[in-house]
Design a protein that fits this description.
The protein folds into two domains: 42 residues; 30 residues, no CATH class. The protein is 79% helix and 0% strand. The protein contains five helices and no strands. Helix 2 packs across helix 3. The radius of gyration is 31 Å and the shape is rod-shaped.
Length: 95
């Protein structure tokens, strides 16, 4: 029994989907030949868009990460200043 290579069948035209695949390939090749700059820019835009989507899905939101840090820093500054202020002002800072 000879091993089957499905990709070879697609490229050789032995399957039912091959004519459609060859038409799509021919259409893509003609579009690239007729409008090389437009196709390059379009593919660059698609790649850039996909990169932004994947990057934003994987990255932690900046607002969520920086907000507790800013609050902690503000609290530390107020606590260090409060040591030098009168008691009446200290009460207002901690409310």
């Amino acid at each position: 029994m000879e091993p089957m290579n499905r990709m070879h069948e697609h490229f050789e035209g032995e399957t039912a989907e091959a004519p459609m695949m060859s038409r799509c390939t021919a259409a893509a090749e003609s579009a690239i030949q007729e409008h090389p700059l437009a196709m390059t820019l379009a593919l660059f835009g698609v790649g850039l868009g996909l990169g932004v989507v994947v990057g934003s899905a994987l990255a932690e939101p900046m607002g969520v990460r920086k907000q507790p840090t800013a609050e902690n820093l503000g609290r530390k500054i107020l606590d260090s200043i409060a040591e030098y202020l009168p008691a009446s002002v200290q009460k207002q800072l901690h409310t």
